[in-house]
Amino acid sequence: CGVFGVYSPVPQDLAWLTYLGLFALQHRGQEAAGICVSNGEKLHVHKDLGLVTQVFDERQMAQFSLSDARVGIGHVRYSTTGSNLAFNAQPLTTRTNKGILGLAHNGNFVNALEVRAEMLHEGALFQTTNDSEVMLNLIARESTKDLVEATAHAMQRLKGGYACVLMSRTQLLGFRDPNGVRPLVIGQREDGAYVLASEPCALYAVGARLLRDVAPGELVSIDDTGLHSLMVEQHVPTPCSFEWIYFARSDSRLDGVDVHESRIRMGEQLAREKAVEADVVVPVPDSGIGAAIGYARESGIPFDYGLYKNPYAGRTFIAPTQEARELKVKMKLSPTSAIRGKRVILVDDSIVRGTTSRQIVNLLRDAGATEVHFRVSSPPITHPCFYGIDTAARKELVASTHSIQEICDLIGADSLAFISEQGLRDAIGGPGLCSACFTGDYPAGVPLLNDVDKLA
Ligand code: 5GP
Ligand code: SF4
Ligand code: MG
């Protein structure tokens, strides 16, 4: 998912600004979008299933925006916990003794169901299956604390990988889990407005410059007195390596590491580790482009666009069902003449289920590629993500049940190789990294309960 928040000292149309921010974060989730704004008195929210441009047409914007808003938050969703239902769309709002609150979150609280069970036991009510509601309820229950203290308390109760924006009518909060698994950055516009977003591309979209990343375990709050920071709890930082491999936009810079450059380094590393003779290096667009550039650069084999991507097609993986994903591959990709009669090195960022990869190898062979050597800029994904990236359940992960040779046969490639885990770490550089989906070593805990319907 993607989150966005803005606090403006000058009253202005923040729904519009949030819309622009969310549009820049659209790649982080296409299932639902929502915006919540307040001018200090009124608080308006609108959310629904669909893309940002579908959920917010002109009529909708005119109806719910406030010309004199001071605080706003927004969310784009791709479902991880809680299914693809309209009532799970965010921001989530609720009335508390601290006034109306709105929350938008990216990631997963691994113990949300335990906390939820305890709260249900004590008589709490839940409207959704969304774990954001657990966070909001925890905050609301700390009725004697102010909003910052109550939120810090909730951060200490809930474990996992998350980045959130929270608003009241007069205050904007942003916070990141103690491991910093999910990203969150702070920017500022020339008019003084502070902006929080999952990625810097959303700051630039609203004319803000990047100030810094929110630190792992940090809670920032912004109101009329400016920006304040509270360090709630800090662990060894382990930001999600998948942000650099695949998820983040290539023009983003997260925790000091440029995404595009890191992808090129992954490709260079892959070429050093897993060389093969061939005529052309072809990316699976768009997610394989950076690594393919690096692979070509390091190997000296020319880069070319061997697959045309229909720019009107969305991200296939994020389509919720297998059938939808398969149809979307055909809608999205078709081979160009660059591969005809050639030995092709096909570079992609990841193999998850292996179904897309198989279809793409087929496409290339049918179009006249003489050999297809598949190179992947992430290690084999053998474990599920519990921190908000929908890499599928373990049994669906082809690398959890198949050897590399078996996957190679399954996708019909002449050879298949993945970057090593150490190679990936070297290519990203920076501080620590979460690589639990490759190793099974989960730095921010694992869920004990996992069926919300068994609770209530
Ligand atoms: P597969 O061959 O495993 O079916 O699909 C692999 C493709 O899924 C890669 O091109 C990768 O870019 C794409 N993909 C899209 N979304 C995600 C995601 O959320 N996680 C992962 N791991 N891969 C994704
Ligand atoms: Fe990212 Fe994988 Fe860790 Fe999930 S398990 S946070 S996808 S590195
Ligand atoms: Mg891809």
From TrEMBL:
Gene3D superfamilies: 3.40.50.2020, Glutamine Phosphoribosylpyrophosphate, subunit 1, domain 1 (3.60.20.10). It catalyses: 5-phospho-beta-D-ribosylamine + L-glutamate + diphosphate = 5-phospho-alpha-D-ribose 1-diphosphate + L-glutamine + H2O. Residues 1-225 form the Glutamine amidotransferase type-2 domain. It comes from the Bacteria. The keyword Iron-sulfur applies. Its EC number is 2.4.2.14. It is an enzyme of class 2 (transferase). Its cofactor is [4Fe-4S] cluster; Mg(2+). Pfam families: GATase_7, Pribosyltran. InterPro entries: GATase_2_dom (IPR017932), Ntn_hydrolases_N (IPR029055), PRTase-like (IPR029057), PRTase_dom (IPR000836), PurF (IPR005854), PurF_N (IPR035584). The active site is at 1 (nucleophile). PANTHER family: AMIDOPHOSPHORIBOSYLTRANSFERASE. This is Amidophosphoribosyltransferase. It comes from Deinococcus lacus.
